[in-house]
């Protein structure tokens, strides 16, 4: 938002950089960290409390190592975008922005691990408090770095990095002093470095990464595709605003997704298949209600929302035209988030990655290209393609849920948390 008021070029550069960073860095760490939803959630349900700390430590090591090559990619964002045929001016601005995001990349990986370590133990309130404090700090940092110190859009990126590290520090302190931390984290363990167990973690973390990234990449790719439309600065800005708005709204269904993932994994780990099944049905009702509410709000604010990002009339008008389409995707995203969360709780990351691959890359992106470039609908067409992908994704996940034998899933979860000589037995 702060970058948007610096001008169209700054907004476009920051938007493309944020999209590129999400595609090549942050979404990868998010996906790899989400494997803890299954490991920690089912271990907690089975009362294997010691293993929560070990799983989390293993994830921290894996994510920090993974972050190194990802940081190199971000360092050369500008050159990569130019090589991909993006506008040189926008690419140059994006490259500067991405470089200032690099410190935050490693903090983001740590944040994913600590968040899931606490969430799977049903420790939620402190996460809300820490996120709220971080948000307030981020707003102040953006104001001072962008406006007062005149760092421009680079200041917004630096504010993001500092905010991530601040959040990590708060959670680390809580883990150190809280009951949940004392119960499940007994210092660093050599078990976290056992090669066989690292392989077991990667067997679930890699599909988790693809499950997450295939979806995230598709959303971000529509922003990059907007750079090839007739008015790339305007189209890129609008698609980035749309994506930013969707991610902002996404925090609500994402919370439901995390909640159902934890509940399902806890219940399956505890050997309560019918409770897991009931949790999925209840969350389905909640996500439908939430999605409808968000969609209505999105439509109601369509004429004023653009002013949060830009004071240029053509940007505000275009955003107003996009909002009804965004309302539809927000509603559908709430449904797929909840279903995907239940799937993570069951450990279905492999099959879900296949579903996402088909939905977004065989259906969604080809539809987006057809709408935008063949039918000449522009940026609105790109987003309509994403909606087509969501429809396919939701249909496949619903079919999976209806055909699930929850008793069998409970048996698989029990097998996953069994240990032999300190090693995990893979389900």
Automatic annotation (TrEMBL):
UniProt topology in membrane: Multi-pass membrane protein
Entries under CDD domains matching the protein: MATE_eukaryotic (cd13132)
Broad class of where this protein is predominantly found: membrane
Membrane spanning residue stretches: 20-39, 60-82, 94-111, 123-146, 158-177, 198-218, 238-257, 278-301, 354-375, 381-402
Compartments, as annotated in UniProt: Membrane
Domain of life: Eukaryota
GO CC terms: membrane
Keyword field: Membrane, Transmembrane, Transmembrane helix
Similarity-based family: Belongs to the multi antimicrobial extrusion (MATE) (TC 2.A.66.1) family.
Protein's recorded name: Multidrug and toxic compound extrusion protein
Species whose genome carries this gene: Urochloa decumbens
